[in-house]
């Protein structure tokens, strides 16, 4: 080490450094890089900066190209999920917006500096130089500078879209559903270039869900010479506020007209009619739109109020006799009497007794989701007038399965439009998972949905921890089409040229 010190000293003198500066180098402790042997100041990794960078890339995982959406009409940028902000080029606001796009990928590094690099204003590119630090081998702090390119894509904001829509649309279909737990209270509007196309949408909704419509039109212009009128038509569609898995309370008159079924029923499906089942007798009935609007009823609970119960005991009811004038009974369900206990009250002895139509699915120890009538304050016109002895303590809706296990075993997927995962809310993802589970549980629902086999999932031949959760069979899955499958190797090369 002493010889190396002398060699370094003479090398510094040869380069023309003054003697006092050369002597100061001898007083500074140094070590040799363990990789290339260059003298360096001591650090925990005993490696020079150049060798450290060859071993570790602290910018790994941070995207080097990101998309930013920009509205050309109002010159605003999209800040996910749905906020549009005004930002000048190379401004602090634009810098903050761009850094938010990288926030999730920079959680393991420390941002030291960020600034813009000059680019042509019409290049649709924004370049940002970032300086980051990260603790690497043996506690050494490595600093790195790199460039991230933001590609500007044009997208019309909702405000500009509404302004522009007034210039070309001739008909609008306003779809509304007055349900308290729907996040979009104002519903959805569909704009069309002709009244005929809007009428087809109205006909489709009337054949798909129970609803009622109202049509109106407004005169835009009138040519007195050719006797030509220009109207804008509006179709207002109101969908019944009853969804699948809702518990409803029918009016006595409607319950009697449906075969003397119980007033407290469960909606098991919504098609062009509302499919109801009586959990006490398995009696089923269908309510069309006209019948509903004459005798309306609402859901007593929303899905967020579902509580988890554990089955303590179950007893299948074999011989259930219905009264005079009773309607049809379901052949797909089994009537049973069960004792359940809330999973949140396992430290108590409180249990609930009820009848359920899920007797073919439930066993002792299973988890099931239901609504607690006994401890709920419900404000419903018909329920408040019922005999308290006829109101059940608990109404069970569906069996509960482990969601993480179902996601892991799901070997299929749906074709969907590109979406910004960063702007997705956790509630949006939960609703999407609920929809996928509904497809697995309802064979009739997935008949009109194209389900594709997910090649990224490894098929499992046998699963010892199968909990009986419903699955989509392999025969119902489609193979995803790609260009190489359709044209072969040479055709694929031609398509990419």
Structure in a nutshell:
The chain has 497 residues and is an alpha+beta fold.
Entry keywords:
497 residues; alpha+beta; Nuclear Transport Factor 2, Chain: A; 5 domains; six-stranded mixed sheet; five-stranded antiparallel sheet; 12 helices; 24 strands; 30% strand; disordered N terminus; disordered C terminus; cytoplasm; nucleus; ribosomal large subunit binding
Fold and architecture overview:
The chain has 497 residues and is α+β, with helices and mostly antiparallel strands. The chain is flat and about 100 Å long. The chain folds into five domains: 2-55, no CATH class; 65-154, Nuclear Transport Factor 2, Chain: A, CATH 3.10.450; 168-239, no CATH class; 259-288 and 295-399, no CATH class; 403-478, no CATH class. Strands 5-4-3-8-7-6 form a six-stranded mixed beta sheet, sandwiched between helices. A five-stranded antiparallel beta sheet has the order 19-18-17-20-21, with no helix packed on it. 23% of the residues lie in helices and 30% in strands. GO terms for molecular function: ribosomal large subunit binding.
